[in-house]
Amino acid sequence: MGNTPMKKPATRETLKNLKMPDPNKDGRMPVKLEAIRKIRQHFGNKVCLCGGNAAPFSSTCLLYGIQETMMLIHTDPKLLHATNDFFAEFQKMWGIAQLKAGADAIWLGDCNAMSRLISAEQYRNFAFDSCKKVVGAYNEAEGLTFLHNSEESIPHLELETQLGASVISVGPGIEIGKAEETVKGKTCLMGNLDPVNILMNGTAEQVSKETERIITAGKINGGYLFDTGEMVPRDTPEENMRAMIKAARERGGC
To answer: What's the whole-number mean pLDDT along residues 48-66?
Structure first.
């Protein structure tokens, strides 16, 4: 699964025509598995090697398009569930293949299921169960799951803590301390640095200070990994990246 929407018609015919690929032969999947094996061979156990997947609901959005998928919530929920179920099986298989190739963890992206797009009730009814199946499979395979919804909603975070993920990412729109209170003792958090207003558009000094603030707050209750709240924009200045990494190493003790 890539980041480019596949945009197929949201019909049962489309779902019927989907075929489970062979990760050792089909598309670019063998290339990624080989890359994981080479990175593991090079670094050994010195780093946490992370593979990547899109969670079932977000995979359905990539297939049909976001607007069409959101409409299925109201017009054809059975088709939505059936498509999510297909992708749950696919993502279980694909993630486990990456773990067997040498990955320690799977970055499970589900930003299309975050609170800016669907309500907590819709998340519970249409995204939760299929995602839980995938996370459960990774847990059984003794792999870590980094769940990336860039979440900023307490009700959504409360649901995500029930998935069994090793780490949950939070966006910049919530105080890291408030998020930690929600998940305390249940899982680890990561994220929170604003990737656009601070990392890309701020000064190196602003990046450094915000990085230090977030890490300091995150360390109070423990269970926090520093990261941006979403992504690293392409046009981020190099000096800002260096300031972020330097501050993270000094404040985080890594």
So the answer is: 96
